Amino acid sequence: MYDRIVTHDDFDGVLSAALTGYFLEIENITFAGPGDIAEARLSIGGLDVVCDLPYPLSCGMWFDHHEANLEDVALRGVDEASIPGLRFPAPSCVRVVLEFFGREFEIDPELEEMAEAADRIDSFAYQSIEDWRAARPENDIDAAIKLKAGRPGERRDFLRWLTLTLMDESLPAVAAREEVAGRADMFRAEEEQMLRLIEKHLAYLDLEKRIVLLDFSGHNRRVKVLKNLAQLLAPRALAVLEVNSLFNREVKTNDLGFSMSLTIAGGQEAVRRDLGEIMRALNIGSGHAGAASGTLRSGSREEMLRGKERTLQAVLAQWELQGKS
Ligand SMILES: [Mn+2]
To answer: Taxonomically, which superkingdom (predicted)?
Structure first.
């Protein structure tokens, strides 16, 4: 009935595809990002099962856990209940997939463990920094997925192999495979480099040092770091705010991207912050409570520099305001 799975190219997407493919006996997998769907860069039809991605123009079956994607479908006037598959807000898409197939098949404990791993990784739900960095099979697999380096097509081939292997083997068995361990080691070397770059730029937005500020807008080339790593250097910070220049192809523009996320400590604070609300209050973007982003467009370099300062102060003011309510 279905002959292909189109899934998100992250840990949750790979596991969602492995489970869906296992139950529906599909081995043809295509990987995509949310932007590929939003901009319709892929042709998707009635024979496709879509996992962990926004709803395309149409598809055969859809599994998702992102609340914003459900709201989008409602806004487009599509009757969500008429789409085969299952959607509900959950920490991971694997959770949704398992719930769906659990209605028809018996779910063994190994699959439940996969859902717990996907929940932790996709919602960044950790008790502490040690808990986040702990040696767990899922963390090795996640690291191997995140590695971007390699010849063209190498990552896609790896993701396809990984998905098929996860249909037959447990997380610990897959994590022990040489293909996974080798890529995980390479990713950890990349992480070390990111940490060094973060260390060089580490500053704070506020005097109390609750918000780490990583301003890469002085760079003439695109900077790619995982801002989550900043909390290894600033374990008591509650949030990380990253500022980047936006590039048009390889040309730096006067536009700035702001992205902000709560640290593990920030997620555990008694005063719950909503970063999406901060971006909306500034009218530069949106997001959810734990992570949000925005864009500031400027006509000149001077305007950009003034706009950046104004925006940083406004973010801090909104943060303080939320702390009082
Ligand atoms: Mn997901």
So the answer is: Bacteria
